[in-house]
Amino acid sequence: MNSTRRGLLKASGVVTAGVLAGCIGEDGSEPAAQGNGETESLDGDGGYAAFFTLYDWTQNIAGEHMDIINPVPAGEIGHGWEPTANLQTQVAESDIFIYLDSPEFRWAQDAVESIESEGTDVVTVNALEGIDLLEFDGHDHDHGHDDDHDDHHHDDDHDDHH
């Protein structure tokens, strides 16, 4: 197993352990809906995921044992999205918050800082923990190449009668 796969498995284990460590609902209630923005709040055990992908991932792990809410409205991806203070309070009162410790999700980083400074019992799970990210400079092809391309067309063997 290479280190990338090992890191991914470790991160998955951390998330699974965090989800199962005291956050499983006892009432068997259905998971909360996702993507309706900040109007939803938890009615029992559960928490928040910082955006849809983490919400979906957590729902697949926790299933019906925990309510998870995606506060980012449907159609938005969370980059640069800013929640109201009401959501920050709701996250601080939940059992778990799954997020990415990444500048693109500054609001989630701020929520975690607030949770940690207040000393609440919210389990914070950084889904990037233990994963070595590859650097990406924004270019996906070589601009300085001098490939010799044959300027032929697939229909060159046909006579053009124009």
UniProtKB/TrEMBL annotation:
Which Gene3D superfamilies does the record cross-reference, listed alphabetically? Nitrogenase molybdenum iron protein domain
Q: Which PROSITE patterns match?
A: PROKAR_LIPOPROTEIN, TAT
Q: State any single GO MF term.
A: metal ion binding
InterPro entries registered for this protein in UniProt: TAT_signal, ZnuA-like
Q: Which domain of life does this protein belong to? A: Archaea
Q: Where is this region: Disordered?
A: 139-162
Coiled-coil residue spans: none
What's an example GO BP annotation here? metal ion transport
Designated name of the protein: Zinc ABC transporter substrate-binding protein
